[in-house]
């Protein structure tokens, strides 16, 4: 893991997303669900993708897996180990989905097929992507179940999903995602539907697996608390765009975007008195079909000025920092100089910002 | 599950009672309209006096009151005796045994043809929902739904079994027993079976399409697609089975309905099945025991088949099975 | 957990991911625009009604020969449909056949709605024993394959006439309407306004007719259109078997029955009644389907 982290920026990253757009042709008009997002993930690195419902985070990861709705138009660039994924034939893309990138879904109650035995759901990606015999695949399936901490894996393999508890099922979906040893694992709100105690176990399991295998991982959540201690970097999405992107440690200390701040204020904390309730964010995100310009968060922002309603802020960094944000009046503005990113500033994350504006 | 089963069986009893009782009451129903009618009309000759008719009625047991006749009939029926034809004196059970294989073969073949056509088309239609193939199939099934078997029989015979049009591909009418002439049996079977299948295809297709559309919205379809599986695999392996429960139920019911609904094609294609014997018996001066016996056998079979379908339903859906 | 409040207040689904509800709404919106098929169907049903009304004004009589037998269609005017095996006017017989079809389509359906509807409302209101008994009778009727039940009734009420067949078809129609009304009324009776009415001490009759019935009518009527098509087919099938409306009384199914042996010599005379029946059934199906989509009648209610 460390080896990967120290690798120079010139090395090909595991995943490089540049100016990715997912536009949906809805009956009401063009919906820009994801509108120009860029980021990269190195091997062994975990990215937390945070935003509320409708922020486009699920759309973003689904477009990576080829499961966006049929009305979606995807443009931009997604490179996995340098191989472009956008625009390649479906047959070729299929050899990547479930094989080199795999996904764990939100609700284990609905994401497993109720009438297909667990064994078969585990072995089918192997049979599709690996040269493996039916018998070997079955052995591997049981082994995977054991790895994700399922007791009596031989027995469980023969069962149907409804015979397992929610936490067990999520372990099964994780095993399913690991079936072909993916390089990148995407966990889309993988714990949201689970009990709090089970949530923790599943998150620990994901972290452990990621470290053991040195995979890249995207942890999608609406909950900053979930991604806080388990990610290397955090990207905050709002209304289809990335509004803040920073190494995890730095984000919590020096959050810059007003939306991120509001998100943090909404996290329930145990270390403050009960009277200080978490404060929900007032208002709702803009309608992405009719939204015209300016900062998408302006309408809900306490500090919004005129410029916020007219001009869209681009992602920029504070000097050479890896901490990017898109806000006209960031938190702690007076503390530092704001230098809009115009040229590559050396850091990998800034080069990618250049691509955005290009 | 067992309790569910028990309730089903319990419900069967009154239904079976009503079905058998209603058929026993046929002579009473006849007399309701015109009291001069008699269930033994087939044996009447012009020179018979009313006393002769009474004697004849007595010979066949129609002088007894309805309830006594019913208990007698049930007593006989459980020993496999359904009375004998008034016109020919042939035991009804014998005629049923002789004729049911043709009807059953016809119904099963029709059902298989209908499923073989409707399942892939229904899956395809759902996969292409709202697009051209779906629209074409939707239009075709609407049209087919308005073609009753008696029209498609005439049309298909005109097209495929009459000289002059597309040529005589199939024999016009007739039947050969499979045990005696398998090739001939299949030749005679195809056209009537297609006629019956055509009437069922649109319902199957529509049902499967709408259930598939529901299933394709499910999260586990996204999961399957995210595994990089091919579209046909996802459709047939992951979506078809959970979508096919109502289709299976309907297929079972359809088989029952077909056994009773082969009447038209049996008569038109001169197939010696159960339906033909019922129509024949009605035309031959109301041969009551034949109509009664045959109808009861079909109706009871239908009721039992429905119950079996329910059980089959439980077996196929692991979620129901668990209960 | 942090965004639970905001999420609830938004009630949004993940933007762009089409939920089943959305898809259904879209399909519904599509159905709202009547297509060309809808107008053609209405047009054809209009023609059938004109035939029913003005059949007597046609020049030829239905039971008298007007010329040679088996004149091909589209050869002469005004008898543009030719003649049947007895040299009778096919045009007149088709027009009068429409009258037969209209009777067998409307009367049994009306009776079915009346009897089935009343029983359904009663079952839905009283539940318990009443429901159990009616259910069993309905199940018993449905246990007969429909055509067989019809044949049995036809055999009991021999010789066949339009009214005998109509009575038989009515028996066939009742269980379907019973089940539909009951299912609907039960669904309705769980709604608040009925519970309120009951709590306020409204009498059963009032609840049944004032609260339950009006909300069920639209659903029943859209189903009725489909059943009308089924009835026309059933009469046609009976006539095709030779146990339907007897000659010389004209009926579309009977015309096919009488001409089917002349299929090779005079295909036109076989296919004209077939086509007329097909168009009528198709139109009724189109109209019924649209009404059903509008009033949201689900097959599962039946």
TrEMBL record, chain A:
Subcellular location as annotated: Cell membrane
Superkingdom to which the source organism belongs: Bacteria
Residues annotated as transmembrane: none
Gene Ontology molecular function terms on file: ATP binding
CDD domains (UniProt xref): ABC_NikE_OppD_transporters (cd03257)
Gene3D superfamilies: P-loop containing nucleotide triphosphate hydrolases (3.40.50.300)
Pfam families, per database record: ABC_tran, oligo_HPY
Keyword terms: ATP-binding, Cell membrane, Membrane, Nucleotide-binding, Transport
Broad class of the protein's primary localization: membrane
Matches recorded under InterPro entries: AAA+_ATPase, ABC_Ni/Peptide_Import, ABC_transporter-like_ATP-bd, ABC_transporter-like_CS, Oligopep_ABC_C, P-loop_NTPase
Coiled coil start-end: none
Membrane-protein topology: Peripheral membrane protein
Domain ABC transporter: 15-264
Matches recorded under NCBIfam families: oligo_HPY
The family this protein is said to belong to: Belongs to the ABC transporter superfamily.
Protein name per Swiss-Prot or TrEMBL: ABC transporter ATP-binding protein
Organism: Yinghuangia aomiensis
Organism placement in taxonomy: Bacteria, Bacillati, Actinomycetota, Actinomycetes, Kitasatosporales
From TrEMBL, chain B:
Domain ABC transmembrane type-1: 100-309
Bilayer topology: Multi-pass membrane protein
Pfam families: BPD_transp_1 (PF00528)
UniProt keyword Magnesium present: no
CDD domains attached to this UniProt entry: TM_PBP2
SUPFAM superfamilies (alphabetical): MetI-like
UniProt-listed InterPro entries: MetI-like, MetI-like_sf
Cellular localisation: Cell membrane
Top-rank taxon: Bacteria
Keywords from the UniProt entry: Cell membrane, Membrane, Transmembrane, Transmembrane helix, Transport
Presence of keyword Cell membrane: yes
Family to which this protein belongs: Belongs to the binding-protein-dependent transport system permease family.
The name this protein goes by in its record: ABC transporter permease
UniProtKB/TrEMBL annotation, chain C:
Membrane-crossing segments per the record: 36-55, 102-126, 133-156, 162-181, 212-234, 270-288
The keyword Membrane belongs to this UniProt entry's keyword annotation: yes
Cell compartments where the protein resides: Cell membrane
Keyword line: Cell membrane, Membrane, Transmembrane, Transmembrane helix, Transport
Highest taxon listed in the record's lineage: Bacteria
Keyword Transcription included in the entry's annotation: no
CDD domains: TM_PBP2
Topological category with respect to the lipid bilayer: Multi-pass membrane protein
Pfam family, one: BPD_transp_1
Domain ABC transmembrane type-1: 98-288
Chief site of localization: membrane
Gene3D superfamilies linked to this entry: MetI-like
Family named by the database record: Belongs to the binding-protein-dependent transport system permease family.
Protein name: ABC transporter permease
The organism of origin for this protein: Yinghuangia aomiensis
């Amino acid at each position: 893991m460390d080896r990967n982290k120290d690798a120079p920026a010139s090395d090909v990253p595991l995943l490089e997303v540049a100016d990715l757009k997912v536009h949906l042709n809805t009956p009401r008009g063009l919906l820009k669900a994801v509108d120009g997002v860029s980021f990269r993930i190195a091997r062994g690195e975990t990215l937390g993708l945070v935003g509320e419902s409708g922020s486009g985070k699920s759309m973003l990861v689904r477009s990576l897996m080829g499961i966006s709705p049929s009305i979606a138009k995807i443009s931009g660039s997604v490179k996995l180990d340098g191989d472009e994924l956008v625009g390649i034939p479906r047959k070729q893309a299929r050899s990547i989905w479930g094989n080199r990138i795999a996904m764990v879904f939100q609700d284990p109650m609905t994401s497993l097929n109720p009438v297909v035995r667990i064994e078969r759901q585990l072995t089918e990606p192997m049979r599709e992507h690996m040269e493996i015999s039916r018998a070997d695949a079955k052995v591997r399936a049981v082994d995977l179940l054991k790895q994700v901490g399922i007791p009596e894996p031989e027995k469980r393999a023969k069962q149907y999903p409804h015979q397992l508890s929610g936490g067990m099922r999520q372990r099964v979906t994780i095993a399913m995602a690991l079936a072909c040893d993916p390089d990148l694992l995407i966990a889309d709100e993988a714990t949201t539907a689970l009990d709090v105690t089970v949530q923790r176990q599943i998150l620990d399991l994901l972290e452990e697996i990621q470290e053991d295998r040195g995979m890249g991982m995207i942890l999608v959540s609406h909950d900053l608390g979930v991604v806080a201690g388990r990610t290397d970097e955090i990207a905050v999405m709002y209304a289809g765009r990335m509004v803040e992107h920073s190494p995890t440690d730095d984000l919590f200390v020096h959050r810059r975007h007003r939306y991120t701040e509001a998100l943090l204020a909404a996290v329930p904390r145990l270390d403050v008195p009960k009277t200080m309730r978490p404060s929900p964010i007032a208002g709702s995100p803009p309608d992405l079909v009719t939204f015209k310009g300016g900062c998408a968060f302006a309408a809900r922002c306490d500090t919004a000025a005129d410029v916020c309603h007219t001009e869209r802020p681009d992602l920029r960094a504070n000097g050479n920092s890896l901490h990017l944000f898109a806000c006209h009046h960031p938190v702690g503005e007076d503390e530092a100089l704001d230098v809009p990113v115009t040229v590559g500033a050396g850091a990998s994350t800034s080069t990618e910002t250049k691509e955005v504006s290009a | 599950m067992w309790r569910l089963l028990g309730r089903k069986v319990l419900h069967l009893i009154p239904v079976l009672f009503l079905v058998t009782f209603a058929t026993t009451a046929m002579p009473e129903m006849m007399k309701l309209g015109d009291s001069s009618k008699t269930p033994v009309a087939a044996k009447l000759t012009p020179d018979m006096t009313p006393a002769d008719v009474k004697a004849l009625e007595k010979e066949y047991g129609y002088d007894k009151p309805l309830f006594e006749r019913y208990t007698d009939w049930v007593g006989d029926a459980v020993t496999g005796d359904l009375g004998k034809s008034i016109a020919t004196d042939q035991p009804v059970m014998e005629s049923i045994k002789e004729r049911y294989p043709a009807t059953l073969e016809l119904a099963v073949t029709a059902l298989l043809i209908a499923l073989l056509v409707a399942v892939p088309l229904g899956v395809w239609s759902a996969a292409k929902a709202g697009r051209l193939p779906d629209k074409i199939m939707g239009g075709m099934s609407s049209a087919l739904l308005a073609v009753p078997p008696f029209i498609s029989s005439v049309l298909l015979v005109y097209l495929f079994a009459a000289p002059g049009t597309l040529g005589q591909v199939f024999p016009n009418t007739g039947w050969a027993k499979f045990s005696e002439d398998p090739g001939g049996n299949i030749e005679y079977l195809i056209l009537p079976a297609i006629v019956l299948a055509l009437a069922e295809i649109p319902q199957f297709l529509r049902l499967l399409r709408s259930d598939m559309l529901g299933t394709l919205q499910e999260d586990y379809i996204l999961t399957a697609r995210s595994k990089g599986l091919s579209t046909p695999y996802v459709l047939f392996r992951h979506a078809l089975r959970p979508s096919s429960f109502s289709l299976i139920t309907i297929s079972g019911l359809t088989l029952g309905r077909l056994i009773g609904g082969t009447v038209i094609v049996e008569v038109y294609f001169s197939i010696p099945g159960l339906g033909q014997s019922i129509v024949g018996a009605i035309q031959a001066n109301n041969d009551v025991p034949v109509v009664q016996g045959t109808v009861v056998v079909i109706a009871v079979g239908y009721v039992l088949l429905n119950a079996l379908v329910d059980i089959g339903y439980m077996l196929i859906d692991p979620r129901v099975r668990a209960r | 957990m942090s965004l639970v409040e905001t999420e609830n207040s938004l009630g949004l689904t993940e933007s762009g991911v089409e939920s089943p509800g959305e898809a259904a709404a879209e399909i519904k919106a599509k159905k709202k625009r009547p297509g060309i098929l809808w107008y053609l169907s209405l047009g054809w049903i209009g023609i059938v009604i004109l035939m029913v009304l003005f059949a007597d004004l046609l020049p030829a009589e239905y039971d008298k020969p007007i010329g040679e037998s088996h004149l091909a269609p589209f050869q002469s005017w005004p008898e543009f449909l030719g003649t049947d095996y007895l040299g009778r006017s096919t045009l007149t017989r088709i027009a009068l056949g429409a009258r037969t079809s209209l009777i067998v389509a409307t009367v049994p359906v009306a009776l079915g709605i009346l009897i089935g509807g009343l029983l359904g409302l009663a079952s839905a209101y009283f539940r318990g024993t009443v429901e159990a008994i009616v259910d069993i009778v309905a199940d018993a009727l449905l246990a007969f394959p429909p055509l067989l039940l019809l044949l049995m009734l036809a055999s009991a009420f021999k010789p066949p006439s339009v009214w005998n067949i109509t009575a038989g078809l009515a028996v066939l129609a009742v269980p379907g309407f019973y089940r539909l009304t009951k299912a609907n009324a039960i669904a309705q009776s769980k709604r608040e306004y009925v519970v309120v009415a009951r709590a306020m001490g409204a009498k059963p009759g009032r609840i049944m007719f004032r609260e339950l019935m009006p909300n069920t009518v639209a659903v029943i009527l859209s189903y009725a259109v489909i059943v009308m098509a089924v009835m026309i087919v059933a009469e046609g099938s009976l006539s095709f078997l030779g146990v339907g409306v007897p000659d010389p009384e004209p009926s579309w199914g009977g015309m096919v029955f009488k001409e089917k042996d002349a299929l090779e010599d005079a295909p036109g005379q076989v296919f004209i009644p077939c086509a007329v029946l097909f168009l009528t059934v198709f139109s009724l199906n189109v109209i019924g389907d649209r009404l059903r989509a509008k009033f949201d009648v689900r097959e599962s209610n039946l």
